Amino acid sequence: MKLTVSDVTFSYNSSLSLDGVSFELQESQILGIIGPNGSGKTTLLKCINKILKPKSGSIILNDNEIQKMSRLQIAKHVGYVPQNSVSPQALTVFEIVLMGRRPHIAWQSSQKDVEKTWQVLALLGIEHLALRNFNELSGGEQQRALIARSVAQEAKVLLLDEPTSNLDIKHQLEVMELAHELVTKQKLAAVVAIHDLNLASRYCDKIVMMKNGKIFAAGNASSVLTPDGIQSVYGVEVTVNYHNKIANIIPIKPIAAIN
Ligand SMILES: Nc1ncnc2c1ncn2[C@@H]1O[C@H](COP(=O)(O)OP(=O)(O)OP(=O)(O)O)[C@@H](O)[C@H]1O
Ligand SMILES: [Mg+2]
User: Fold this and answer.
1) Is the distance from the beta carbon of residue 234 to the nearest atom of ligand 1 less than 6 Å?
2) Assigned CATH for 2-254
3) What's the CA gap between 40 and 15, in Å, rounded?
4) pLDDT tens for residues 32-59?
5) What is the pLDDT of residue 134?
6) What residues does each domain of the chain span?
7) N or C: which end of the chain has fewer CB within 10 A?
């Protein structure tokens, strides 16, 4: 499994929302995408999932250009958990996770797909939610149900858009531990847009820091999460302490307007 993003440019209108974005991701790695609101994180994930079509550049998954892959092929390889999601119909968690099997189902779901769905629900510790209506779950429960759907899908690349934003501190750690476990044990790769810099530094093998659609810095956590870098990108003065090699970023105060 290898994902190569080369010089990707995208615009919704006259201005560029992604401008020359390039990175590589190998299997068993989590890549964190960080950056302020509107810096292009969701747009980038949508380009990787072919929901949006880049203006230029290429996205290659294992020698296959994403633009040339069918929706079904993409669905077999890429699992996407959006930032906000509402199910159009009143579906149960079980049905949502079973839907992850759809790229693999010929006509009708088989006993095997039903068994796989229960296995995944158990793996994610959400069997008790199986018969609940998805739209009536808490944000955190929904996040876990959607990650379960990607696992049922047997996706090789997970695209997680702020998977921890609705979660309490325990579930934040649990979701990131889960992502780490899936990525290492099942040799997946994950691209995770995330606002929590401390979680990013703890769980991401690589970090891409975006500003105005461009990559401002990329590399391992300690090279990207520097006080100067964070100040330039977020306009906030911070101190960075290391505790057992995990960065602990403490915001001090916002600084005068930057661009
Ligand atoms: N559907 C759209 N139409 C027009 N402009 C859009 C659309 N979606 C996003 N944008 C713009 O593209 C830029 C990047 O947005 P994007 O959603 O990728 O940011 P983000 O980094 O995910 O932000 P956040 O942290 O708030 O989720 C922003 O300037 C945004 O206003
Ligand atoms: Mg976003």
Assistant:
1) no
2) 3.40.50.300
3) 12
4) 999 999 999 999 999 999 999 999 999 9
5) 93
6) 2-254
7) C
